[in-house]
Automatic annotation (TrEMBL):
Source species of the chain: Phytoactinopolyspora mesophila
This protein's UniProt keywords: Membrane, Transmembrane, Transmembrane helix
Keyword Transmembrane: yes
Record bears the keyword Transmembrane helix: yes
Pfam families: DUF3159
The protein, known as: DUF3159 domain-containing protein
Transmembrane segments: 37-62, 74-91, 111-132, 153-171, 183-201
């Protein structure tokens, strides 16, 4: 086995999916929107019925995640998002507006990731560095900084794809289609994003680089 192959093999266990927490949070995030759409339809397109179902499911998901050992903040963020979406749709009286928060957050996220790359503080590096307890050490490694910059570009496309799908559906009041899109573009898209960004990072690092856990300075 060549030195390059050996170095690549050493980096393989450093799964980006494992570092970012796997699929549980993204799968849980689809339950309240699905509950909203199902209850909205079952209740004769009643927004109150849809909101009640979404909030109840969000509470159950938050409780389930806490019992599984999730951090309280991580479990409550999803619940807060559902509550904000519920308030928005109750205020506007337009069912499609339940997904307005998701649309706005994806547009804001795309902009934030773009800015982070521009100022050379790629958010992928910030997140992974925090998970690994490296603080800002990764930024002093030019190879890692370049790899995180390139990997972060992939994440921008994830948010742009969602905005491109959600926006026309929201504008035309396609509530059921929005619910389906929310499910289809959550875990499957994030899984693809993680896989591609991990591939980009691996290809961007020199063969002899020790990996994400070991930034060189």
């Amino acid at each position: 086995m060549s030195g390059a192959d050996a170095a690549t093999k050493q980096r393989e266990p450093e799964s980006l999916s494992a570092l970012l927490g796997g699929r549980s949070g993204t799968v849980d995030a689809t339950a309240p929107p699905a509950a909203f759409v199902i209850a909205w339809l079952a209740g004769g397109e009643s927004i109150v019925t849809g909101v009640a179902a979404a909030v109840v499911v969000a509470l159950l998901v938050a409780g389930w995640r806490l019992r599984r050992g999730a951090r309280p903040r991580a479990a409550l963020v999803g619940l807060l998002g559902v509550c904000v979406a519920a308030l928005v749709v109750l205020y506007t009286g337009r069912a499609a507006d339940f997904f307005l928060v998701q649309l706005a957050s994806n547009a804001a996220s795309a902009l934030a990731w773009l800015v982070s790359i521009t100022v050379r503080w790629p958010l992928l590096g910030v997140v992974v560095g925090a998970v690994l307890g490296q603080k800002t050490r990764w930024r002093r490694d030019p190879d890692l900084l370049r790899a995180y910059n390139r990997g972060s570009v992939v994440w921008i496309f994830q948010y742009v794809i969602r905005v491109a799908v959600f926006a026309p559906l929201w504008l035309t009041d396609q509530v059921v289609a929005l619910g389906v899109a929310r499910i289809a573009l959550t875990w499957p898209l994030i899984a693809a994003c993680i896989a591609v960004s991990w591939w980009v990072i691996q290809r961007s690092l020199p063969p002899a680089h020790p990996g994400l856990r070991h930034p060189t300075e």
